[in-house]
Amino acid sequence: MGMSAGGKGGIKNEINVTPLVDVCLVLLIIFMVVTPMLQRGKEVHLPKVVQKNPQQDGTNTPNLLIISMTSDKQIYVEKDQFDLPGLKDKISKEIAANPTEKILLKADQTLTVGDVRKVMLAAQHANAKGVGLGVQEEKK
User: Fold this and answer.
1) CATH architecture of the region 48-137
2) Which of 31, 64, 67, 122 stands 20 to 30 A from 105 (CA)?
3) Is there a contact between 69 and 106 (Cβ–Cβ < 8 Å)?
4) Rounded Cα gap, residues 93 and 121, in angstroms
5) How far apart (Å, rounded) are the C-alpha atoms in residues 29 and 126?
């Protein structure tokens, strides 16, 4: 509480760090809660690449439809689950609403090319211009 006994009742030139620490802890808690919500799509283990493609990344693009395919072959658009015919309809509706929409496919590394190709064909039949594949850069 910092009370001094005796002396003149003047102004103290001391910094009170308790409110600063309280604010920092509250900000830390807020960042810990918000950070997991920033990830879009379903959690998958992406295949690793040695060198990242120098073209645009696309992760910060607002016109980005994220399709995730988990190791058990479940298909998600953002957080909603779809089967292949439902996925085709969803992509068709999204492209009709926004023709410049880009598609990012995040497929688990344990899936075969044939499994991923089914999703890419569904996007092609839904008139998608192209599908970008999500990969993780391998650390050297």
Assistant:
1) 2-Layer Sandwich (3.30)
2) 31
3) yes
4) 16
5) 42
Could you tell me the residue ranges of all domains in the chain?
A: 48-137
Write the pLDDT tens digit of every residue in 82-135. Answer: 998 899 999 999 888 988 888 899 988 888 889 899 999 998 888 888 888 888
Block residue for tokens 């092609």: 124
Q: Which of these, 36, 105, 45, 39, lies nearest to 75 by C-alpha position?
A: 105
Whether the Cβ atoms of residue 111 and residue 74 lie closer than 8 Å to each other = no
Q: Which residue stretches of the chain are H helix?
A: 18-34, 84-97, 113-125
Handedness of CA 44, 47, 50, 55 (dihedral sign): negative
CA-CA distance, 107 to 70, in Å (whole number)?
Answer: 6
Q: What whole-number distance in Å separates Cα of residue 107 and Cα of residue 125?
A: 19
Q: Provide Rg for the chain, Cα atoms.
A: 25
Residue type, 84: L
Q: Which residues share a beta bridge with 91?
A: none
Reading across the β-sheet that carries 131-133, which strands appear in turn? Answer: 80-82, 75-77, 64-69, 102-107, 131-133
pLDDT of residue 13: 81
